[in-house]
Design brief:
By secondary structure, this protein is an alpha/beta fold. About 30% of the residues lie in helices and about 25% in strands. The chain has 7 helices and 10 strands. Strand 4 and strand 5 (about 80-85) form a beta hairpin. The longest helix is centred in the C-terminal third of the chain and has 16 residues, at about 185-200. It is globular, with a radius of gyration of 18 Å. The chain binds adenosine-5'-triphosphate (ATP) and magnesium ion. Magnesium ion binds near residues 59 and 60.
């Protein structure tokens, strides 16, 4: 587990991720939008967790808070022993670089970089071994597309580059926002398998989806509705092997 060595704001709770009474409100010309409403959540190291909820329920907002890409209006968040809400900018920078890896809902690939260069870029940031980039692209089934630029790739292929980029960081917490959203069933299944392998290798994986069927692969499903957690436990549809899913 990664720990920020210079952090002065340690906490000794055992959960890897802990949210306490977290709310996020947006003031839209005097109309208040509550994206997250008094959320309490704890996630242990090595958990495979799905955040399930309809569009607008606060899933991306929640993920962005955990990855320190956004800050709550009120409440406390700590991840990997660091109190994110009380941390300095410099500490947050190191945290984002070393603790979390994002698979964004909208890919966020660099348009001027090839598939391979997009993955190498993520490795360079962590001063890792660039030659790994090729290997990771092969892992997501894109070995043949490494010289393609994002606009020369299908939506599903771009998503797989985004996933390869996140895996290449080697960071212990994977935050995946609708990682199968753009993919056909078979490709989606292979991505879920990849994420499950990450859990087996000791990573903590949070997957956001609006698809209840996909949530059946996880150990634990946290359901959001209008910014609130409305259930937290095993999948209501029953846990299923990836090979038994249909969507
Ligand atoms: N920057 C913002 N300013 C104002 N409102 C926002 C902002 N970002 C999000 N919201 C609102 O907060 C709510 C939650 O948004 P969020 O993106 O977290 O939903 P989501 O569950 O990820 O939805 P989707 O499945 O469509 O991606 C929405 O109602 C959204 O309109
Ligand atoms: Mg979203």
């Amino acid at each position: 587990m990664w720990m920020e060595p210079t952090s002065t704001i340690e906490d000794d709770s055992e959960a890897l991720i802990r949210l306490e009474n977290v709310s996020k409100r947006y003031d839209m010309n005097s109309i208040i939008v509550t994206a997250l409403d008094s959320v309490d959540l704890q996630v242990d190291e090595g958990e495979f967790l799905v955040v399930l909820g309809p569009s607008g329920s606060g899933k991306t907002t929640l993920l962005n808070m955990i990855g320190a890409l956004d800050s709550p209006t009120s409440g406390d968040i700590s991840v990997a022993g660091m109190n994110i809400t009380g941390a300095h900018r410099k500490e947050l920078f190191a945290f984002r670089r070393r603790a979390v890896a994002f698979i964004f809902q909208s890919f966020n690939l660099f348009p001027g970089l090839t598939a391979l260069e997009n993955v190498q870029f993520a490795i360079d940031i962590n001063k890792g071994d660039r030659s790994e980039a090729q290997h990771v692209l092969e892992e997501v089934g894109l070995g043949e597309r490494e010289r393609h630029f994002p606009h020369e790739l299908s939506g599903g292929e771009q998503q797989r580059v985004a996933i390869a980029r996140a895996l290449a960081t080697g960071n212990p917490v994977l935050l995946a926002d609708e990682p199968t959203g753009e993919l056909d069933f078979r490709t989606g299944v292979s991505i879920l398998e990849l994420l499950q392998e990450q859990v087996k290798s000791g990573k903590t994986v949070l997957v956001v989806t609006h698809n209840r069927e996909i949530s059946r692969v996880a150990d634990r499903v946290v359901e959001l509705s209008s910014g609130r957690i409305v259930s937290d436990g095993p999948s209501k549809g029953g846990r299923a092997a990836i090979s038994d899913l249909h969507w």
